[in-house]
Amino acid sequence: MPRLLPLLLLLAALVSAQAPQRPNEPSAAQAPQHANVPAAAQPSAHFDAQAATDAWLASLPPAFRARSDAYFEGTYWLMLWDFLAGVAVCLALLQTRLSARMRDAAERVTRSGFLRTVLYWAQFTLVMALITFPLTVYESFFREHQYGLSNQTFGPWFRDQAVGLAVNLVLGGLAVAALFAVVRRLPRTWHIWGTVVAIAILAFAVAITPVFIVPLFNTPKLLADSPIRTEILSLAHANAIPAHNVYQVDASRQSNRVSANVSGLAGTERITLNDNLLRRCSPEAVLAVMGHEMGHYVMHHVEMIMLFFAVVYAAMFGVLRWSLDASLKRWGVRWGIRGVGDVAVLPLAIVIITTLSFLFTPLGNTFTRTQEYEADLYGLNAARQPDGEAEVDLLLGEYRKLDPGPLEEFVFFDHPSGRTRIYAAMRWKSENLCLFEKDLPCAIAPR
After folding, report:
1. Which residues have a Cβ under 8 Å from the Cβ of 209 and sit 6 or more positions away?
2. Which residues contact 429 (CB under 8 A, 6 or more apart)?
3. How many domains does the chain have?
4. Is residue 273 part of a domain?
5. Helix (H) or strand (E) holding 260
6. What is the pLDDT of residues 83-118, one digit of tens each?
7. What is the pLDDT of residue 392?
8. Quick check: pTM over 0.85?
9. Considering the domain boundaries, does residue 211 fall inside one?
10. How many other C-beta atoms are found inside a 10 Å radius of the C-beta of residue 61?
11. Angle 227-238/283-298 helices, nearest 10 degrees?
């Protein structure tokens, strides 16, 4: 630990020496006025969805595609290294009995079981953060700059990491303390009630994120009165969404990535777009993205995610109980762990849950990818902007591989690939050509 102190002092100096980066506010004049549609994707009597998709993908230079592929394929290995690093640190805490010593230290401070768990969590989180810090720096700072995806200097980046760590210390500590309270009070059925508590914690996190967590990293503000705001609200009202405001965040302080999201629960729901979307995309693309996000809202995807995780958590907690009992029977004395209700067992629990989550990745990705595809289809029918959808899909291709193989997409993609999404948009366009040329056939009446 003493060897880390000079590094921490150096990092603190860097933070204080560098002011947060604040790019200029995006203006409408910077954004494309219209989607730049390739010739093969123009409406015509001979329109072909596959040829149009190929034309959109071919509009990107080969060097762009190569860099995007390299970046995204690199994340496959990072998923493995992150998993192995986390497991290795947790096993080291058990084998060296450092986990037991951290528990003992917490017990010397207070008699409250709840506060002991919180104090243990603080020690555990700091140790994990310090040991894995080199990997974190490479993964989310140096590598992001290597691929031209970050706007931050080290100081502002480190500030965001510190804020995230603080949030984890507070909210994570309360969550872990609540779960261990269930384990201690309900030793026979804790895996059942633990699932209930875990879902309640997830719902709470979803509800507070847009109001209390997002402002810690970015500044949300109401989108200024403008033609695009009027069109977004009109689109919302046409789809029975009681929206009166549109929010934007200054994501450009971190990167140039375009994105939007629907977040919140039980009255805190917000549809939010980032400033990069306004700065880099045509109005057609902005409306396509907003239609997609409204699809999540209308189709109750947030609630469906809660139900999905209720099933997943129930299965994982059942496996966790069996695994903990078997492991402690064999190694509990060696590790200095008194039982399943002993907070020193947390590294073992994390190894088990992390392993289950790692193996579950393809199925979890398939669930979210399916929801994203459904939202794409909803957005196409709501916003009627297939070319805008294709435009933004190419921008997402800056950090998502555009044309993976089927198995690759199944295992690693939590969103449909760029080719899948663009083809869906061009297929929709092929059935509704009269929206773009009045003399061409149409499946739906033009507005």
Report:
1. 263, 264
2. 41, 43, 47, 49, 52, 386, 387, 436
3. 1
4. yes
5. strand 260-263
6. 999 999 999 999 999 999 999 999 999 999 999 999
7. 96
8. yes
9. no
10. 9
11. 30
- Rounded to an integer, the average pLDDT of 343-371 is 96
For the domain that residue 228 is a member of, what is the CATH number? Answer: 3.30.2010.10
Nearest to 73 by CA among 358, 404, 395: 404
Torsion angle of C-alpha atoms 349, 353, 354, 359, degrees rounded to 10: 150
pLDDT for residue 397 is more than 70: yes
Residue 143, Cα to own-chain centre: how many angstroms? 18
Q: Closest Cα partner for 214 from 144, 292, 171, 272?
A: 272
Question: What's the Cα-to-Cα distance from 221 to each of 18, 84, 95, 226, 231, rounded to whole Å?
Answer: 25, 40, 49, 14, 18
Residue 260 in tokens: 């939007």
Q: Is 10 left (phi over 0), alpha (psi -120 to 50) or beta?
A: alpha
Q: Give the mean model confidence (pLDDT) for residues 33-61.
A: 92
* Order of strands across the sheet that contains 270-274: 221-222, 247-249, 270-274, 260-263
Q: Are 205 and 171 in contact, with CB atoms under 8 Å apart? A: yes
Of 242, 374, 369, residue with least CA distance to 295: 374
3-state DSSP call for residue 432?
A: strand
Q: CA-CA distance, 441 to 342, in Å (whole number)?
A: 69
Instruction: Give the phi and the psi of residue 218 in degrees, each rounded to 5.
Output: -140, 165
In a domain, 132, yes or no: no
Binning the chain into helix, strand and coil, the percentages to the nearest 5 are 70, 5, 25
Check: CB of residue 229 under 8 Å from CB of residue 118: no
Tokens read off for 34: 């219209």
Q: Is 233 exposed, middle or buried (0-12, 13-18, 19+ CB in 10 A)?
A: middle
Residue 236 domain-assigned? yes
Strand-pairing partners, residue 432, are 442
Total residues belonging to the chain? 447
Please state whether 237 falls in left (phi above 0), alpha (psi between -120 and 50) or beta.
Answer: alpha
Q: Are 435 and 442 in contact (CB under 8 A)?
A: yes
Q: Say if residues 419 and 403 touch (Cβ distance below 8 Å).
A: yes
Q: Pick from 89, 74, 90, 79: which is nearest to 358 by CA?
A: 79
The DSSP code sequence of 66-97 is HHHHHHHHHHHHHHHHHHHHHHHHHHHHHHTT
* Domain that residue 259 falls in: 221-298
